Amino acid sequence: MTNLPPPAASGNCFYILTEDCAYGSKYFQAGTMCFCSERSYLRNFSEAGPPTCFLKVVVLDDGSGVTVNVGILQPLREEAAGFLLAIGSPKERLSFFLERLSLEAALGAAPGRNVMVEVDRKFFPGVIRYVGSIYKPSLAVLAPVFFGVELQVMWPGRKIPGPGIRGDPEVPSVWDGIPASPGVLCRPPGLFPSFDSDVGLGPPNPRKAETSESGEEGEGGNSPLEVNSMVQIALDKGSQVSGIIRWLGFLPQIKEKMAGVELDEDKGVTGGEWLGKSYFHCAPKRGLFVRLNSCQPDQRFQSLPDARPSLLEYGEREVLPQAPPESFPPLRNEAAVRVLRGRMKGIQGHCNSCYMDAALFSLFSCTSVLDSMLFMPFPLSDRNVQGILRDEIVNPLRRTGFVRASSVMHLREQLTDKGQCSSFTNAEKDPEEFLNLIMQQILGMEPLLKLQSGGQEQDCYCYQIFLDKQEDLVVPNVQQLVERSFLSSDLKLVEIPSCFIIQMPRFGKEYKMFSKIIPSLELDITDLLLDSPRECCLCGDVATLECLECFQDQVFAATGLKQFCSSCSRQVHSHHRRKAHKPARLHIPEEFQRWNSRRRQPIPREKLELFAVLCIETSHYVAFVKYGPGKEHWMFFDSMADRHGGESGFNIPAVTLCPEVAKYLELPLAGLALEQPRDMDGVAKRLFCDAYMYLFQSRKMALYK
Length: 705
What we know:
This protein has five domains: 12-76, Roll (SH3 type barrels), CATH 2.30.30; 97-192, SH3 type barrels; 209-302, Roll (SH3 type barrels), CATH 2.30.30; 310-320 and 329-529 and 606-705, Cysteine proteinases (Cathepsin B, Chain A); 545-587, no CATH class. It has 19 helices and 40 strands.
């Protein structure tokens, strides 16, 4: 019998739809919220009654009564349901729900907590003053929950955008005792748990003062700070900036010694002016005035007192900070841009590490689909490797946007000790070697893919596309390549994978079967699933037969497997050219046949979303990561984008935005085929011409892994 959790203490059980749902003439998007009463729940799941796969629920938005397949319902705690209900867009609501760590952070937020709040696409520090409903008491089953945040004014004369909330009759009186200051009401996605800033006008951290050669007091680190010193500044726990001190001295109305810093990125608030007076010159939004004790020498460029050691020696000498007890959610949308973009961002490369750097950045920067690698006690789990991966690589990447090469080297040393290969610390490797080793041999993870061929099941972590030369494909997309590879190998997916890692048909560093491959932003795997209901490619009814020969027939479209209902199959195969075809009968679950005979609903489609692409031109791996929902929301990561110093120096990683990718995704096939790689804008050529590995995810299935 199908079971769902029992009702909450309120007598109701709340759910969120993980897939679109049609009921009669109404259509409900994935992310729609609903509930059922205790009486309805008990009636549907009574032990004495027959097994059921359907539950009658009430949609919270409009009160509609709907009968829904329990397979697309995810239960919610009442507290979580309140936060989610405040998010108006079903798509955004589902996205926030699937980012489990973000939802948990919202549930743990309480009045008095320092936060960063998004207002008009900018981020400002604030303090939570209220958590709850903003509406008058009513008979509604559930009230949406909002955060009331008091914004902290950090710079004189700075105007914080956004509506003030004081005096709003709908807001509870808890605000009445708060000193007047700008405030906003916000929903969970606009709130970020990062904080305790010690820059600007906040209280300084107590640090030992040091005297520079000029006799002036400086603070922070073992090196005195002066004009032209390269420094780092922690704006909050989720954001760090770096730059060069251009001015030192005292500002009007401020007692502490201040530093005027020219930042490496547009994250400042000035061009060097303070209260109308210019103290130094830099580009707009590159200047920042901070207390000198908020500046730390930039460790990335700091020499030690003796001769400069190699990066590896430096990594061995340093004492790593204690791992934070909490975990950090993946970065999405504006937060990803704020934390990850820039030079000395991402994962620092060292000694042929690019295969590992690109893979780790792709898997953990902007998605949580494989976060189980960081926390789950796998049967063979090596806690040391898991701890290094979580505390020295993933958490720093999501928290500050930067991972030192010494941290990756620490992981590489452990892989060498635990694995069967002694060259992980210095030799060139491919990403699949690293992924297979850490997932299978060290962590003992359950395989990501379960396949069936010829009645035999097989497991794997990465899927390699094998194809004979396809003369009819000039510029294929990933959907076409996967379908043809599955057909040629007689493969089916036994279950929907939470993460589908696909290697392209290229061998070695020289041979590529296709000069360009179009990224499929969605991979439709409905017809690749074993014993899954499928749709007739002609009339849309339930398919009962599949024909391999028809798939290869030029009359039909190049994309999509060819399956037919009985009627369409008879008609198609009545043609003299197709009479010799041998369609194979499909298995249709009896439960689905009964359900569909009553409702005649469209066959549900199972789609995976693309979240990253690893690329290699000759011998160096880079990564493209999708950080938001739009076609233009791509960032490009290179762990060795630049270098500082000679043999004893170090690599400078960089993360840049590459919205130009959208232009080529929207081009018609003929136009893209004619594009000369050397003429393509920005780094788009590397995505379309050098793709090595595509990474897809099902955030719905990741909930169960």
